[in-house]
Amino acid sequence: MRISIVILNWNGAQMLRRFLPSVLSNTPREIADIVVADNGSTDDSLAVLASEFAEVRVITLDRNYGFAEGYNQALRRVGEDCDYYLLLNSDVETPEAWIQPLIQYMDDHPDVAACQPKLRAEHTPTHFEYAGGAGGYIDCLGYPFCRGRVFDSVEPDLGQYDDVADVFWATGAALMIRAKIYWEVGGLDGRFFAHQEEIDLCWRLRARGYRIVCIPQSVVYHVGGGTLPKANPRKTLLNFRNNLLLLYKNLPVSSLRRVLFTRFFLDSLASLVFLLKGEVRSFRAVWQARREFRKIKGDFAADRAANLAATKVGRIPELYSSSILVAYYLRGKRTFDSLGR
């Protein structure tokens, strides 16, 4: 089989009913195997899959491993007999002919390890989707942004990012990656549990000299953050902690201490903003994230050493050399195109 599309599900029976039919209808079965990996659901997901989607292969995990390790567990069972894995969120609608441009580009460009389609918001299909847009980037202090989305400013899709572009990271909502390379670089880091694990994986890929691209000729529609509460303390904790971990794992020695020092003050400022907005639980989550980072940082020392030893690219071109905070809040740059490089 050319590609294994793996959908990780946790208590998402309604999402499966809503979006899995589009994947089945619009994906040629002669080239793609569609798998749903159930991450220890306690709702009726397994019953729904058995009764309504009997043609889909189901992998049943014994508990909720989180996004990162859940995928590792599932992909180990899928194996490496396919050319590509495609990690697809359960809340993604795939229109007709969505997958062919991805496969064609990867087949034609062996130096590309991973790619993503263009993501539009399912709830506002004229606009890019927050979590993926038209490909992800990161600034010198570790803050991620996308073509089509800088912080909370999400652009309408007017065709301004319809060129295939090299990116720093591809969204985990629809991430296509060569199966052998996925395991070669260690897969997703299961200790992240959820949030920013795909950025860590892509950083490892780019540092080793592989390309990552967005292929906007393929378009999918993602629910994502559109239905989640904006202030979620658990999400805040994971985002702040995991962002520090990916910096620790991947930054070169020459900049790590300076960046972590700067981030202490910026995280302090972020926590103060939460407090002034009355979001006390998110205020506490920032400091809990920093405490957890300090506590577990040593567990990642060997990973850091291995990543630095395997690095082949001195400066990654897609790493934005300036501060996105300064550009956005002080210079009023609200779109990707306005940032300059």
How would you describe this protein?
The structure is a single chain. By secondary structure, this protein is an alpha/beta fold. It is built from eleven helices and 14 strands. The strands form three sheets. Strands 1, 2, 3, 4, 5, 6, 11, 12 and 13 form a nine-stranded mixed β-sheet that branches. It has a three-stranded mixed β-sheet with strand order 8-7-14, with no helix packed on it. The protein has a two-stranded antiparallel sheet with strand order 9-10. 45% of the residues are buried. The mean pLDDT is 95.
Topology record:
Blueprint: E1 3-9, H1 13-26, E2 32-39, H2 45-52, E3 57-61, H3 66-78, E4 84-89, E5 92-93, H4 100-108, E6 112-121, E7 136-139, E8 144-146, E9 149-150, E10 153-154, E11 165-166, E12 174-178, H5 179-184, H6 197-207, E13 211-222, H7 233-250, H8 253-276, H9 280-296, H10 301-310, E14 319-320, H11 324-330
Parallel strand pairs: 1-2, 1-4, 2-3, 6-13, 7-14
Antiparallel strand pairs: 4-12, 5-13, 6-12, 7-8, 9-10, 11-13
Please outline the major beta sheet: 9 strands, mixed
Tell me how many strands there are: 14
Binned, the helix content reads 40-55%
SSE arrangement, N to C: EHEHEHEEHEEEEEEEHHEHHHHEH
